Structures are given as structure tokens and as C-alpha cells.
Amino acid sequence: MFITRESDYAVRVIRALWGEKRLSVSDICEKESVTAPFAYKILKKLQKAKIVRGYRGVHGGYALNKGLDELTLYDIYAAIDPDMFIIECLNPEYSCVRDGQDGMPCLVHKELASVQRELESLLKRKTLQQIMEEA
After folding, report:
1. 102 vs 35, 57, 86, 108, CA distance in Å?
2. Strand, helix or coil at 53?
3. Which of 23, 26, 28, 94 falls between 20 and 30 A from 9, CA-CA?
């Protein structure tokens, strides 16, 4: 799981919406220096994950659908990139030619799986509320 620019910008979008009743995409873009096409793509994924809620019409826009006390960095990153693996071989759909070769499991895979679990744990340890209050 390399934190992509899209994941980073998703956190920015959430930060822009924090404490606001509703913001237009242009307001979000202005507050967090995100381009509109990128913001729409991110908001669509966040909406699908039920993290934000979209409103249509003249006074439309977006608002948080969950409190920052319910969300972690992991939640945001997973909404943007559901296949968050630090290396391709950790994806269960990936077939590694080295794992199980000669009847031996890949010990590097085992170590990287441990790193993956630790990283996920670290991303889940604080809510966004806790992170924002530290500032």
C-alpha cells in the first residue's frame, strides 16, 4: 500500500468538509488545492463508501456522512484504494511462483504480510478527530 496522491487528496477533501454543513466541489477545491475532476472522482468513491453524502440542486454539494470520530486514515485509504497491499504478492488473487516452490513457503512473503498487518493497525489506531485535534 503506497499512499497514492488520490488517497492523500481524499484526506484533504475530508479535511475541507470537517466542520462544514455542506460545501460545493469548487469550495472544496479552493480550500484544499485539488482540481475539480480529481475531486469529483474522489467524492464519488467516498460517497460509495458512505463517508460523504452528496446533495443535488442549486444548493447542492457534499457533506460528511460520518463523524471524524468514526473515521480513521485506514477508512479513507480503503475507500479510495480497496486493494491496499504494500506488494502485489499479498493480494490473495495474486499467484506467486516463489511461494510454495519446492514445498517451502516464501519467508519474505510471511514477513511482508506481518508488515502489512502492522501498517493497517497503525492506520486504524487514531480517529481523524484525534488527528485533527493534535494540530
Report:
1. 51, 62, 25, 15
2. strand
3. 94
pLDDT over 70 at 80, yes or no? yes
CA distance 9 to 41: 11
Query: Cβ neighbours of residue 105 under 8 Å, at least 6 residues apart?
Result: 99
Is residue 79 a contact partner of residue 128, using CB atoms and an 8 Å limit? Answer: no
Backbone angles phi, psi at 37, to 5 degrees: -60, -40
Which three cell numbers, joined as nine digits, stand for 134?
493534535
Which residues on adjacent β-strands are paired with residue 23?
Answer: 62
Cα 2 to the chain's mean position, in Å?
11
Using one digit for the tens of pLDDT, what is the confidence trace for 7-51? 999 999 999 999 899 999 999 999 999 999 999 999 999 999 999
C-alpha 108/C-alpha 114 separation (Å) is 10
Q: Are strands 61-64 and 52-55 parallel, antiparallel or unpaired?
A: antiparallel
